[in-house]
Design goal:
Blueprint: H1 10-21, E1 26-30, H2 35-40, H3 44-51, E2 56-60
Parallel strand pairs: 1-2
Amino acid sequence: MSSQVTRGDPARVINSAARALQPDLIVLGTHGKSGLEAVWEGSVASKVLRRSRVPLLLVPVGRKG
């Protein structure tokens, strides 16, 4: 197992790492926003999905109740 800290646009950094590492799956946490709300706020998950051919698993985080 390894870790890496990088800087830059999150979607570009994630997709760049995916090209280098060739994973079978990308797992991202999500706040659960969709549609225009996600587009307006610049959803990282939607950008990663559009730019990657790797399957994407979204895990909801931060919502209670």
